[in-house]
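Sample A.
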Amino acid sequence: MKTIPHTRSNKAVAASALALLLALPVHAATFTLNPSADAFVTTGPSGTLSGNNYGGAGALSVAASGLPQGDFQSVMRFDLSGALTSFDTQFGAGQWSVQSVTLSLTAAPGSSFFNANAAGQFGVSWMQNDSWIEGTGKPTTPTTTGITYSSLPSYTSTSDESLGT
């Protein structure tokens, strides 16, 4: 085995190579998708609606407890397999990492079923258990199949990650 002596020129070559490596462009990519399933659930006034499902409502809702129509929670599930395929195709399998994710929500006026619009904050969490069923209930025709306010706690755990407020 031949040993190459460390000289000033070897260090300069290494420094130049490192500078070139750090100067390589960083490529970004965007992948956009809608939820593959979503539902909102509510306690309703005095807890009367906690066993109902509203997965077919075509909307989501959030509301704090103590409001006239009760506490509302919403769940969304995203199928990210398309993102995996897209990024692997663009950058090569395992040659990329996710640096940020953005969730965009659009506000819409509610009907009399919902609580009146009110300013406030809400939290977003990544639920580890996404085996809940969306259901087909609507505000005018709720069902008891699919996720409900009563069943929601069975899908949450201390492993869920808060993503922000």
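Sample B.
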Amino acid sequence: MNNSNNFKKGSQDSFDNNWKNRRETKNNYWTRSSPKNQIELAFRMHWKLFNELMPKTSGKKVLEIGCGRGSISSYFADNDYDCTLLDISKSVIDVAKDIFYKTGHNAKFVVGDALNLPFENESFDVLVSIGLFEHFEDLDKLISEHNRVLKKGGIVL
């Protein structure tokens, strides 16, 4: 890391600065057509697996924790789920909002902490995260927050 900037490695500011300046930041990995690359294929396959795992009687309120661009939430939104996307970074949420606007998908966007979710108990039928858990040391707290906001009979993907 270049010492000329004022960002501490691993800090939220460092992440936001990196996120804003990466060429692929605004790439959308959701598609209705055939996937054009490996990342689109991976998200499509995640969706197919999640769709098979979810009970057909489950509700439609979904929370993606650590949403990034919202690629997996785009699949939920495209299938009439009521989506909420959460990330700790406003820069990330802004990218997700822009992608959802361009695709015509609807969602709520929340800047918030996965260890202290800003939602009432039992608020969501489905919780989904891809690439989240490896960023936390206290998995018990993270899982406890997942359980707190998940409705009885809900599913965590």
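B remarks: The radius of gyration is 16 Å. The mean pLDDT is 87.
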